[in-house]
Design a protein that fits this description.
This protein has 443 residues and is of the alpha/beta class. The protein folds into 3 domains: 15-35 and 291-432, Rossmann fold, CATH 3.40.50; 50-166, 3-Layer(aba) Sandwich (Rossmann fold), CATH 3.40.50.1980; 181-277, Rossmann fold (3-Layer(aba) Sandwich). The protein is built from 17 helices and 14 strands. It has helices at residues 42-46, 60-72, 86-90, 94-108, 122-127, 131-141, 163-170, 199-206, 220-224, 240-250, 263-277, 285-302, 317-326, 344-353, 385-390, 407-423, 428-432, and strands at 15-16, 52-58, 79-83, 115-121, 146-152, 181-187, 210-213, 229-234, 253-256, 307-310, 331-335, 358-360, 381-383, 396-397. The model has no long low-confidence stretch (mean pLDDT 92).
């Protein structure tokens, strides 16, 4: 017997935060994918290694998305693929096919790439493919090429390390043990360069410490030099596993200094950084005051308009909501499916002090009609593409994974984005459907 997806109620009304539960406010089940595509995926991340080439082995349906993503990035010269068919399983030739296909790709290339990322799919894991043997054979055939084991396994989202943290971990596998430079640190697992105006850059520069970022590397040799840094900094939770792995493999000290909107937590991050590097902590009171004033100015510009925040814009949407509310910005909705442990304290605070905030999921099947049910289009100012889509508003800050948002400088940038979002509408349909925040900006 056929049943309606999501039950009898076709539109999920969400819940007041006072009734929401930690860490999962909503039941899991059949999932809906909203047409907000600005988030990065494993294709985008893998291509951050300069001069590298990717080879995907998976079913044709999965390949369609991979090829489209790469084409949108105008990086088709850096992608090869082979699709699976039933005969591959029946004949027991999966390992042989991978080895032969990679060998053929390399032979057809005019110049061997310094690094090849080989992606296997869920089907290879189900079949028990010996990935280590495949890599060993390829290394014996093609000396001087770094082969990286990568995975396109969405079925593993809830088992072990999820696909994106795994991708960030594999992103740095070619780095090899070398002598460390105490005056060099890395930002690990962040898709963009930190803004030039970020205090973190100023702190390091003033102490004569060089900052290395994969996004700033133009050549493979520059990328490999990241192994020389004595300290790795991660600022998003998905990259923490990469930092821990590098600490174990290469002896690079890992410190997690997450993106935050809380002034005290920002100060704690910088104090931890300075303590680890043995450098003086600067006086950041002026930067803190400037950030607070920027939020007050944004509140004045918004004039009480309701604001919606989604988890894809920032990793801690409840922390951001708390800071905005405390500075006079009228947050009414938060879109989130799972509440992280880092956001639990802010979530609890809002439950007690702002019990009428509405919390909505993004993947619940009932949400497929939610955007169409919005009676007051463009009422909300949204932070994030999913919030913009579900609230049916063209007034939104196009923010994904806290791009460019770090420290007090990041708060000022967010305040400026909010002010602009309230005044200048965007082409919602066009903006949110571009993968990787417009794709061409990813490389």
């Amino acid at each position: 017997m056929l049943k309606k997806a999501g039950g009898e109620n076709t539109v999920l009304k969400g819940v007041k935060i006072a009734q929401a539960s930690f860490p999962r406010p909503f039941d899991t089940g059949l999932e809906y994918s909203a047409p907000a595509r600005g988030d990065w995926n494993i294709v985008h991340v893998g291509l951050l290694i300069p001069q590298s080439h990717q080879i995907y082995f998976c079913a044709q349906g999965c390949l369609r998305g991979v090829v489209q993503t790469t084409a949108e990035m105008e990086a088709m010269d850096r992608l090869s693929w082979a699709y699976l068919c039933d005969e591959d399983y029946a004949e027991g030739s999966l390992e042989t096919n991978i080895i032969d296909s990679v060998s053929e790709v390399i032979k057809r290339m005019g110049k061997r790439p310094p690094c090849l990322l080989i992606f296997l799919s869920c089907m290879h894991l189900f079949a028990g493919v010996d990935f280590d043997m495949v890599i060993e054979e390829l290394e014996s055939r093609f000396g001087g090429v770094d082969f990286v084991k990568c995975y396109m396994t969405p079925t593993m989202r809830f088992s072990g390390l999820a696909p994106m943290p795994t991708m960030y971990k594999q992103l740095y596998q070619p780095l090899r043990m070398t002598e460390k430079n105490s005056k060099s640190v890395n930002i690990i697992g962040y898709n963009w360069q930190l803004e030039n105006s970020c205090e973190l850059r100023d702190i390091l520069s003033s102490a004569g410490v060089a900052l290395r970022e994969i996004t700033a590397c133009k050549t493979y040799e520059e990328y490999l030099e990241m192994a020389q840094s004595a300290v790795n900094i991660t600022i998003i939770p998905e990259a923490a596993a990469a930092g821990a792995d590098l600490e174990q493999r290469l002896g690079q000290k890992h410190i997690y200094l997450p993106v935050s909107f809380d002034a005290q937590l920002i100060m704690n991050n910088y104090q931890t950084l300075c303590g680890q590097l043995g450098i003086p902590m600067p006086d950041l009171s002026q930067q803190q005051e400037s950030a607070a004033q920027a939020l007050k100015d944004a509140a004045k510009a918004l004039s009480g308009r309701p604001v919606a925040v989604d988890y894809l814009a920032v990793h801690k949407p409840f922390e951001l909501s708390r800071v905005l509310l405390e500075n006079g910005i009228n947050v009414k909705r938060v879109f989130v499916d799972v509440i992280s442990g880092e956001d639990e304290q802010a979530f609890s605070y809002l439950k007690e002090n702002y019990p009428d905030i509405e919390v909505y999921p993004t993947v619940n099947a009932s949400m497929r009609f939610f955007a169409n049910e919005q009676q007051d289009e463009n009422e909300f100012v949204a932070i994030g593409q999913k919030a913009a889509y579900f609230c049916a508003t063209d007034y939104f800050a196009d923010l994904v994974c806290a791009k460019g948002i770090y420290g007090f400088d990041g708060i000022k940038r967010l305040a400026a984005m909010l002010t602009e979002a309230a005044a200048v509408p965007k082409d919602r349909r066009k903006v949110i459907q571009h993968k990787g925040m417009g794709c061409q900006s990813c490389l």
